[in-house]
Amino acid sequence: MPMNEAVRVLVVGDPxxxxxxxxxxxxxxxxxxxxxxxxxEIVIPLGVGQAAVxxxxxxxxxxxxxxxQLSLEIKKAHVICIVYAMNQRESLARxxxxxxxxxxxxxxxxGSYKPVVLAGNKSDLVEYSTIDNVTQxxxxxxxxxSIVECSAKxxxxxxxxxxxxxxxxxNPTSPLYIMDQQDLTPECKRALWRIFKICDIDGDNYLNDYxxxxxxxxxxxxxxxxxxxxxxxxxxxxxxxxGIYKESITFRGFLLLHCLFIQRGRSETTWACLRSYxxxxxxxxxxxxxRPSIKIPTGCxxxxxxxxxxxxxxxxxxxxxxxxxxxxAKDHKMLFSxxxxxxxxxxxxxxxxCPTNEAGLITLEGWLLRWILMTYLEVPRTLxxxxxxxxxxxxxxxxxxxxxxxxxxxxDLSTQQxxxxxxxxxxxxxxxxxxxxxxxxxxxxxxxxxxxKDFNTNIEHCINSAKLEGNDEKxxxxxxxxxxxxDPLQPEEVKCDVVCLIYDISHPQSFESIARIYxxxxxxxxxxxxxxxxxxxxxxxxQDYIQQPEEFCKKNNILPVYRFSxxxxxxxxxxxxxxxxxYPHLAQIKxxxxxxxxxxxxxxxxxxxxxxxxxxxxxxFNIIRS
Length: 626
Hints:
Blueprint: E1 7-13, H1 19-28, E2 42-44, E3 55-59, H2 67-76, E4 79-85, H3 89-107, E5 116-121, H4 131-140, E6 144-149, H5 158-170, E7 177-178, E8 183-184, H6 186-199, H7 209-220, H8 226-239, E9 244-245, E10 248-249, H9 251-263, H10 267-276, H11 287-290, E11 302-304, H12 306-319, E12 326-327, H13 329-335, H14 346-353, E13 362-363, H15 364-377, H16 379-388, H17 391-394, E14 403-405, H18 409-415, E15 422-428, H19 435-441, E16 461-467, E17 473-481, H20 491-494, E18 498-504, H21 510-522, E19 529-534, H22 549-555, E20 562-563, H23 572-582, H24 584-587, H25 592-625
Helix pairs in contact: 8-9, 9-10, 15-16
């Protein structure tokens, strides 16, 4: 239930067990002399109970409420309180034989049942306890959260009944604990595993004192006192010797600690931990935590902030167990073990779209580049996985702090300055011209790897860094546009930061398709275009088009054709594409060579004019002196 919603308690039981007396005793703090057939619905003040939420209490009367009305009230209630009389054994037997079965048939939601609190009234009339009998019932009906023996006449434990009713709603035990197995539920263990791994900052699979205190502050806002921490370790070691290793808490010890909390009626402590890490009452992570709202105006893109990169670097170093600067498939699997699924496939994804080391393992650079790619293409997914992996515990605030939204591209063009680091290049050409190999060559130094059968399969994006002049480094994404000859380009296939049009220098029909694409989509566009001839180590053939590529480039005032071969993959073409994407105002003039000569000529003209003016001034001055 939402935390700001009133807790609705329905009190049921056989006639004469004292349901109404308990409710009236709670309100008036005294035993009622005259008891009506049914108490009116009341609201417990905020100060009563365990949480600052209103609590509505509804009394059931078999003489004033039909079965249909009872069924409706059961559905509306958040928790059911079944009252029995401790001096009437038949009313205790009816809990299991009648009431709990009735509640199950009326209150099932999402595969679970409404929580139940059992209240044994009239304890002042007997000298024995019914706890043992009720414990057997609790083992058969896990929805029974707690049992309270009380007396409306002496006011014994009256407040406690409704305290436990509130607690059963706000901090239910059944999602956390299996009563008959005396163990945590699999869902609870899985959630605590994620929390444990997030808190295990050094990645040694133990929580040391520093890590325990960080966990404590994240959950409760205050560190543990040293003496309390010592006592906690002693309790764990007493119940489970291997729960402590070299004065640090193991995962088994961490689970035991929460088991003890729940067994001792402190489920709110475990819930406080779970909720501080984003879990709801069903032990699922709340969607609003996973994907917080982010506004991305038209023309803007998303990149990792310095906080996001620093977190991902620390995560990489944590799981790089042998400190070799790379993540093995096992390391990668362990890193994402606290997520529902890995963010991507290690072999089928990473190896094909990011640079790896000679052994095919993901390096720190490749790791960051894969996150940069996902942030550019699917920022909601990045936000989701950053939360799974614990960014919110790493830094105050939400995982939105790991993202920066760039300014609009038109502002970069108007100011001729760029604030972005990541750019998109579309690689376009007909089938067989070598688009896939061109993209792969961007992330691979050893061209022999391009023969790998897994490596030659199509994948839509590749990403790598391109170092420009000085220390200026940009990330360039290559997107392969497939089958351009069959269908017209879609708007999302046209829009990008720079276009690379590819044809095969040895195939006479390969240039025509990209020439038509340029004339149809890009001739009036402000998007920079570079034409690349692949397989340039082969013999050049004449293209079956009205213009040859060099003539086409000259006529349309674009950069000359760039000759590319896998045998001489020096990465220069990718630097050129990155530069065109990052500084489109230079590419607007189409020919950088022409621009340089134009600027040089203009500079010479200005210098000449300035010199001529100085000469005339000096000459006039000399005439006057004469």
